[in-house]
Design brief:
Elements lengths: L13 H4 L1 H18 L11 H6 L6 E3 L2 E3 L7 E3 L11 H6 L15 E5 L5 E5 L2 E2 L21 E3 L38
Antiparallel strand pairs: 1-2, 3-7, 4-5, 5-6
Amino acid sequence: MHASRVPTDPTAPAMSRHPRRLISFLLLSLAIGPAFATAPAPPRAKSPAEIAAASPVPVWRRNGILVEQGGRALYVFDQDTPGVSRCDDRCMALWPPHYAEPGAKPSGPFTLARSFDGRPMWAWRGQPLYRWVSDRRRGAAGGDGVADVWFLVRVPAALQAQVTPYFPMPMPRAAPTRAAAPSSANPPGR
């Protein structure tokens, strides 16, 4: 004899009429559910431009040497002492200091020094940093060895991670000045 089946309500949902199927379905849902859940998107990697713009100092690394925003090389002067520039006014006309903004803070191997005119300037491990006026284009590095006292700053392998890689960025430009309109009270030529 077969076991008698208990009559079920035909209007009840199918799962409630079959408790084993309901339990199996729930267990399966718990097991594979997380596989189909949407995970949060991984953080977006920063672009080279964003990384360069976030540099704590306005000095970057390009082809193993230090460069400024325009991609031109930075130099040290052998006559300087740590933290103090000995490049006087005539010297600064050819080798402009790489000035620091007011409130600038040292970061990693980048420190601050005082230029000959007393203004703060960036330094590499205490050595004040300069540009050379003849370096006019991105990638220019023609001042290495000038007068045997000016040298490029080569970033040692151990410090590469502390210097942000260079990415070309627009150079800040001075706002154009407009000539004053001639006054109607004083017309030209009178």
